[in-house]
Structures are given as structure tokens and as C-alpha cells.
Amino acid sequence: DAGVTQSPTHLIKTRGQQVTLRCSPKSGHDTVSWYQQALGQGPQFIFQYYEEEERQRGNFPDRFSGHQFPNYSSELNVNALLLGDSALYLCASSFGGRGSYEQYFGPGTRLTVT
Amino acid sequence: AQSVTQPDIHITVSEGASLELRCNYSYGATPYLFWYVQSPGQGLQLLLKYFSGDTLVQGIKGFEAEFKRSQSSFNLRKPSVHWSDAAEYFCAVGSNAGNMLTFGGGTRLMVKP
Question: pLDDT tens digits for A39-48?
């Protein structure tokens, strides 16, 4: 049973560029949440997708957007990258949308903005 | 707004010694509480969770945590630490508006041989 997978593992971008990160949820899960973890800090909630819609959003600007596909996989897009966007981006999956509290995390994508 | 505080940024214990990691939360209703562990370069692994009921919860890898409403705390304990327990530990509270998790800043555990 595959767990949560994320791609790519690492990437390096330049300020002002755009980036897309991908996540496949654990088998049987239908809800995907994205978190940003800056170095030395705890993860911060970006947003959650369920039934292909954004259901909840944390305190992140509109430069951060996402999408969920019919197979429940998800993408996180960040436009106009800033140096401060450098972080580990974690995807978490769960079942049942807002009614589920047990989240399984992927290994993350390390984004470096230069 | 909900928040989580982990007062200890770093803790060093000797292998075989007992461990307690502190977590204090701020939340208006009955909280949903979690402890996660993160090894270097890895994602987060759920150790245990508290939703309701018995205030002492057992988790994986020999960890347990106790919910104390009067102290707004959810401290993680282990009676005997192993070298493989060295990692970063995060306490989190879940929102009753969904399952958005709010994490503390983490405690880095080092284990001396």
C-alpha cells in the first residue's frame, strides 16, 4: 500500500519564477492538505482540497494556488517566487474532508529560491 | 485563534533515560491533539492522537501522552529512550472547522549514548 508520494524531491528556482509541486494521496484517501515548513519551524497550513475544491485556506497570499484532480491527486502552484518561499512543502492526505483528523504526510518537496 | 507552544527547542537525554516533551495549546473548544515525529529529510509520522475519552493515550514506538485540560497541556512521554528516537517532535492541534492542523515550533531531541 503506497503512502503519500510527492514530486519532485528537490528543486531550485529563481525569484519571480513559478513552480508546481505534485502530490498523490495514500490509497483510499480523498482529501489533500498542503503545508509549508520553513527551516527550523513547524509546518504551516496552506490549504485543503476535497471534492476538487479548496475547502479551507490558511494565511497565505493568492500567489499560492492549488488544484485537485478526479483521482484525488493534487498540485500546489506558487507564482512570483520570493526568497521567503524557500521551504519544505508537505502534502498530507486523509479521508472524508472536514470530518477526518488523521492525516498522513508525504516526505515533502524541498524548494530553494535563489 | 488556536496556537501551540513547545517551550523546549532542544532536549538532550541519555539512552535509557525517561523523556517528557512539553506542549501547551490555546483553543476555545475541546481540542483534537496530535504528536508527530520528523526524522531528518523525512515527512511527519503520527505518533498518537487525542480526540476524546481517556486522557492518557498510547501511541506507537512506546510513546504516550496525557491530556490535561486544566493546564492546557498535552505532554509526550517515553519511559526509556532509544538512540533511534533522536528526531524533531511536533505537537499539533486540529481545528473544529475542519482538519487544519496548527503546529508548535518543534522540539529537537538528541540522545546521548
Answer: 999 999 999 9
